[in-house]
Task: inverse folding
């Protein structure tokens, strides 16, 4: 602020000084031209009369007429330049011995050189006052800037200290701590809001990790306990039952390994670590393959599985992963819709729907089922890892597709929309 104001005042000062000099030069040149013209039109006596009666308020004149010096000035300084060049010189006025500063120059006329000058000390005094006022204004501005800067920085430091104290609480593990947001909606509030959103996401992820840990412990405890008990009992098994019991334990172990492999595969897909084998995929052909693969599973439960297709749509995607996602959805419908249920697959251009008339999913649980290892209580009697729908959503996200769960009245309606 000080530099800006000082620069502006300096520019104004330079403009005033330049304007003063220009006005003085123009006035002196105008007077010089007038006296040159006067010398050409009148005789010497008339010219002298004009010099004697010249208005001193317009210009101060000095003309050396022989031994006599005529005009408003009582002296003619030496080394005065020819107009338009000018020079400043002082004069003593009256008995008060007051000094005035004049600016003038010599003009050559038919009757000799004439000194033409004008007072400039008043303009200089005006500029001096301007400089003094400017310096005072700058001093007040600096003081005001320091005062406001101190108050402003004090407020900022207070908020920064508060943010630092709260961040230390977060570092200590109090993840429910949030930075305060005022009604001013300034930059600090925007930063605090963004930081709070990051904390919300972090807290949600931590809860999700805890939930995943609990679900892993819940789902893995039973098969691992069976494995431990089975291994302990192996030495006491009859020889003819030993192979069968080892096969059962191997199946339990395969289920545990499949769960962990599914979690690793899901992470690779979500993080983009698994490259997609992109190729043109016809949705109608994908649905035909899906019906062919799932029809036998539906017949085992006396279910009716139907397919209805219309205008075909070709997208760019990984056919293997897309088939895996769709088959997982149909497999879930077959598992949980119940015996004798009706399941329909419909493909209409870039939209695929899978509907059943089973028990469905409560509306408050439709978002949770996409989380890792989340299995609703009614489904825990079915063997599974609880990662199927998480995998489906990850695969569809990689293909820029969306999935929506809604009520089929009765049953569940799954809607997949592929981006064109």
Result:
């Amino acid at each position: 602020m000080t530099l800006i104001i000082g620069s502006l005042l300096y520019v104004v000062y330079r403009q005033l000084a330049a304007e003063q000099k220009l006005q003085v030069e123009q006035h002196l040149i105008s007077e010089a031209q007038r006296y040159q013209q006067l010398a050409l039109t009148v005789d010497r006596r008339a010219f002298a009369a004009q010099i004697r009666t010249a208005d001193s308020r317009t210009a101060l004149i000095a003309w050396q007429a022989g031994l006599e010096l005529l005009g408003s000035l009582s002296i003619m300084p030496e080394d005065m330049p020819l107009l338009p060049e000018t020079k400043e010189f002082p004069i003593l006025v009256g008995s008060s011995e007051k000094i005035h500063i004049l600016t003038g120059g010599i003009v050559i006329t038919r009757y000799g050189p004439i000194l033409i000058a004008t007072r400039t000390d008043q303009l200089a005094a005006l500029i001096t006052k301007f400089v003094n006022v400017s310096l005072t204004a700058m001093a007040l501005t600096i003081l005001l800037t320091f005062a406001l800067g101190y108050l402003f920085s004090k407020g900022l430091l207070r908020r920064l200290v508060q943010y630092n104290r709260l961040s230390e609480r977060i570092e200590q593990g109090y993840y429910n701590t949030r930075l305060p947001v005022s009604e001013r909606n300034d930059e600090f509030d925007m930063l605090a809001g963004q930081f709070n959103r990051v904390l919300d996401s972090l807290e949600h992820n931590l809860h999700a990790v805890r939930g995943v840990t609990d679900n892993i412990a819940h789902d893995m405890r039973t098969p691992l306990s069976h494995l431990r008990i089975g291994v302990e009992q192996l030495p006491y098994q009859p020889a003819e039952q030993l192979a069968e019991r080892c096969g059962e334990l191997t199946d339990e172990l395969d289920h545990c390994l499949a769960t962990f492999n599914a979690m690793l595969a899901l992470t690779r897909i979500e993080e983009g670590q698994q490259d997609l084998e992109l190729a043109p995929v016809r949705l109608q052909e994908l649905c035909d393959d899906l019906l062919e693969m799932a029809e036998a599973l539906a017949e085992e439960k006396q279910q009716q599985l139907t397919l209805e297709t219309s205008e075909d749509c070709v997208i760019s995607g990984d056919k293997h992963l897309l088939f895996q996602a769709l088959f997982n959805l149909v497999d879930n419908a077959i598992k949980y819709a119940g015996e004798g249920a009706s399941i329909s697959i419909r493909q209409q251009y870039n939209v695929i729907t899978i509907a059943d008339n089973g028990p469905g999913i409560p509306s408050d649980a439709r978002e949770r089922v996409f989380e890792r290892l989340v299995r609703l209580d009614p489904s825990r009697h079915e063997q599974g890892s609880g990662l199927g729908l998480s995998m489906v959503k990850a695969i569809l996200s990689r293909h820029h597709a969306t999935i929506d769960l809604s009520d089929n009245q009765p049953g569940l309606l799954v809607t997949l929309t592929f981006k064109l």
User: Anything to note?
Assistant: The helical segments are 2-41, 44-52, 121-171, 187-233, 239-270, 283-300, 319-336, 388-398.
